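Long-time lurker, first post. I've been practising inverse folding by hand and with some scripts of my own, and I keep getting stuck on stretches where the structure tokens seem ambiguous. Below is the full token string for one chain I'm working on. Before anyone asks, I'm not after the true native sequence, just a reasonable design that respects the backbone. If someone could post their per-position residues I'd love to compare against what I wrote down in my notebook.
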């Protein structure tokens, strides 16, 4: 594992714990000599993690669609910035550049990004580890929904374990290092 893609809110959120978790994750990335791949913004939790990694001498790679440059504030001090045409290209580029994925708290964009990556893993597009940093129980309802999907027969039990969830950034990264992808098919009626 060389690069970790972090999906995070472009807003800071309402709790100081969200900001603190972005900073702690950034410190852990640098400590473990992992490069950060993210959406390229200088604001919100995205900006916090990028600033932390940069301040500690780490490498930060941003990926941002040109049409978002006016709405989101592009981080101008990144190690590398990839300009892409749209959100689809952004996610594809982030996936291509990364060896693992982590979701910090965030809104619709963060949720959409993490679920697309999980879906890609489920159908075999990649076998990279996926994690969620569950800060102050932020992802508890989502974890419960995934468990409900497993119990309801919509998510195979092995695929229900595709997302590694932890409250501690260091422990989350350690679990991503040792992650083994499920070997079972997504489609239960084809097994």
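-- Answer (accepted) --
I ran through it position by position. Result:
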């Amino acid at each position: 594992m060389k690069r970790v893609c972090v999906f995070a809110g472009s807003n800071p959120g309402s709790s100081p714990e969200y900001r603190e978790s972005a900073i702690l994750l950034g410190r852990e990335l640098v400590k473990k000599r992992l490069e950060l791949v993210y959406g390229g913004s200088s604001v919100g939790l995205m900006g916090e993690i990028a600033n932390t990694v940069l301040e500690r001498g780490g490498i930060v790679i941003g990926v941002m669609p040109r049409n978002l440059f006016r709405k989101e504030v592009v981080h101008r001090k990144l190690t590398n910035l990839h300009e892409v045409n749209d959100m689809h290209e952004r996610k594809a580029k982030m996936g291509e550049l990364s060896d693992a994925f982590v979701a910090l708290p965030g809104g619709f964009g963060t949720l959409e990004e993490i679920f697309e990556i999980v879906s890609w893993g489920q159908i075999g597009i990649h076998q990279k580890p996926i994690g969620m940093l569950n800060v102050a129980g932020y992802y508890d309802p989502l974890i419960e929904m995934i468990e409900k999907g497993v119990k309801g027969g919509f998510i195979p039990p092995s695929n229900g374990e595709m997302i590694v969830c932890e409250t501690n950034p260091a422990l989350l990264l350690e679990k991503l290092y040792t992650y083994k992808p499920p070997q079972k098919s997504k489609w239960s009626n084809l097994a």
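A couple of notes from the structure itself: Strands lie at 3-7, 35-38, 60-65, 80-84, 100-103, 130-133, 163-166. The first helix runs from residue 16 to 31. Happy to go over any region you disagree with.
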